[in-house]
Amino acid sequence: MSAEEDVREVISMYIESMEKSSPELVKQAFHENAKVVGYLNGDFLQLPTEDFAGFVSAQEPGDVEYEILSCEVNGETATAKVRDKYLGITFLDSLSFVNEDGTWTIYNKLFHVEA
Question: How far is CA 106 from CA 16, 41, 43, 80, in A?
Fold first, then answer.
């Protein structure tokens, strides 16, 4: 499997974590030192992985519509843009990834609320 396919699998795991309200999948998809950063309802949020996992687990399971807009791998790092509709809100996620010891994880999620 190519590095891009591996990164896309991590994106799928991230989406699945939201669909299933699974903190375990969040912790698999995100690096332990990752941050989720952006504005939601006018509030600036900076959530470490553990807090984001808690947020996801507190939600009702449900379908998440998403589209991978771009995915680029550069050696042991990668970036992707993903548009997803979660909790009735459309997010544009800028994701950065790192390959540590052969495992790709999301190192940073910068989100923008579109609608």
Answer: 14, 24, 23, 10
Q: Consecutive sets of 10 residues in the chain, 115 residues long: mean pLDDT of each? A: 96 98 98 97 96 96 97 98 96 98 97 92
pTM of the shown model: 0.95
DSSP string, the chain: --HHHHHHHHHHHHHHHHHTT-HHHHHHHEEEEEEEEEEETTEEEEEEHHHHHHHHHTSPP---EEEEEEEEEETTEEEEEEEEEETTEEEEEEEEEEEETTEEEEEEEEEEE--
The vertex-104 CA angle with 2 and 65, nearest 5°, equals 85
Contacts of 69 (CB under 8 A, 6+ apart): 80, 81, 82, 83
Residue in 17, 13, 18, 51 with CA at minimum distance from that of residue 34: 51
